[in-house]
Amino acid sequence: MSEGKDRGGFYDTGWRPSDDLHRDEDGRPHDHPGLQEDVVLGVRASRALAMHELLVEKGVIGSGEVDDAIERWSERVPSNGASLVAKAWTDPEFKARLLEHPKETVVESGFVPEHNADIIVLENTSEVQHMVVCTLCSCYPTALLGPPPDWYKSFSYRSRAVTEPRAVMAEFGLELEDDVEVRVVDSNSELRFLVLPRRPDGTEGWSEERLAALVTRDSMIGVSGALEPGKD
Ligand code: FE
Question: Which of 49, 139, 148, 205 could be a cystine partner for 134, CB 3.0 to 4.6 Å?
Answer without folding.
Answer: 139
